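Subgroup meeting minutes
Present: P.N., E.W., G.H.
Scribe: E.W.

1. P.N. recapped why we're keeping a running log of single-chain structure predictions: easier to compare across weeks, and new members can see raw inputs and outputs side by side.
2. G.H. added today's entry (269 aa).
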Amino acid sequence: MLERVRNQGLVLLGCGKMGSAMLEGWLKQGVPPAAIWVLEPHPSDWLKSTGVHLNAGLPAAPAIVLLAVKPQMMGAALPQVAALGNGATVFLSIAAGTTIASFEATFGAQTPIIRAMPNTPAAVGRGITAITGNAHASEADLALAEALLAAVGQVVRLEGEHQMDAVTAVSGSGPAYVFHLIEALAQAGEAEGLPADLAMQLARATVCGAGELAYQAAESASQLRVNVTSPGGTTAAALSVLMDKETGLPPLMVRAVKAAAERGRELGQ
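Output recorded in log:
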């Protein structure tokens, strides 16, 4: 699939943290810098050193244009690549809340468009991205998007764009929930008499280690929980609070994810 990029070229619109993570992954996969055009008004020293075409004239018909600018910057940035619409060039957006219909209005109704929702662990190659395309995005187009996004983690396909707000609420915003869990666990440790720095070290290492165990283990998350819960022990005492059906973590998480999904729908209107 990446041969298509090597032959026709790739345009990256925006190269902040997420764009830089993906670009680094593509270069490691062997995509030649000469096949990549980057449009970025504030290039980092690292970007300048990569050898890609930086803020230069674009190829006439690149294989794909990856839109990696923030939603609020779309209005100013998209005109730079609008002329590439209504052709064979695929447009792949990683912007939250910006719908496929809005891109079709900008680039033309015949344009192959794929919408993706990555998350910030992509910065360390451990992200997960969900994708969905419009009627003009072929199987080959979707496979190309998967190959490019796989440079920063796992990729899954959705049934349709109607699932994107839920994905945003679970995996797109989810890292922030985990970071807050670390904060809350550390604060609870302080409340039990631990020094703040030690409580944070314990909480951070515990969450990171448990995440890696969940990533590597064949067992389900439920089974992993059971594995560390002795009947009548300390973990069981804590879980009796966390798993309460009315006041515990499950109903709280349902409300949190629902709030994020509803906000996503609002932003997409």
